[in-house]
Amino acid sequence: MQTLLQKNPNINMVIGVDDDVALGADQALVQHIARTHSNPSKIYVAGMDGENQALTLISKNGGPQGIYRASGALDLPQIGRAVADLPIEILQGHPATSLFLNYDLVTTPAGAQVLLNEYAAALKTGG
């Protein structure tokens, strides 16, 4: 991202293939904003999978510069059910040929906090 910003200092949007990629871009852009005094309100970073660190930034109004604005959070209970059901379906001779997963687009501090609370509760109960 640093190299991209050196060659294209006016980059104002990054949508990462996952939250890890977007979090790296967020760090580089936060440094870039500090160096160049760019306007953070014109920069948008988003990722996918609802990682805790990304949700935490969103819950804090986008982090230090307010630029991490969205994450497509996976429906973890749905994934858990699919992983548990797949071996049974295979043994019964009719495995699914495709799987459609739901995402929750998280864009508000309140929405991020709801998912963070759900994740914490699931860890406590083991589910």
- Provide the domain count: 1
Q: Tell me what the CATH architecture is.
A: 3-Layer(aba) Sandwich
Supply the CATH superfamily name.
Response regulator
Give, in order, the helices and strands.
Answer: HEHEHEHEH
**What is the number of helices?**
5
Q: Please write the CATH class name.
A: Alpha Beta
Helix content: 40-55%
Strand content: 5-15%
Q: How are the strands ordered across the major sheet?
A: 1-2-3-4
Contiguous low-pLDDT stretches (5 residues minimum) are none
Query: Overall 3D geometry?
Result: elongated
Mean pLDDT over all positions: 91
Helix/strand-derived class? alpha/beta
Biggest sheet architecture: 4 strands, mixed
* N-to-C span: 36 Å
CATH topology group:
Rossmann fold
Radius of gyration: 18 Å
Q: What can you tell me about this protein's structure?
A:
- This protein has one domain (2-125): Response regulator (Rossmann fold).
- The protein has helices at 2-7, 19-36, 52-59, 76-91, 109-125, and strands at residues 13-15, 44-48, 68-74, 103-106.
- By secondary structure, it is an alpha/beta fold.
- α2 (19-36) links the parallel β1 and β2 (44-48).
- Helices cover 51% and strands 15% of the residues.
- It contains five helices and four strands, in the order αβαβαβαβα.
- The termini are far apart.
Give a quick summary of the entry.
With 127 residues, the protein is an alpha/beta fold. It is built from five helices and four strands, in the order H-E-H-E-H-E-H-E-H. The chain is elongated and about 60 Å long.
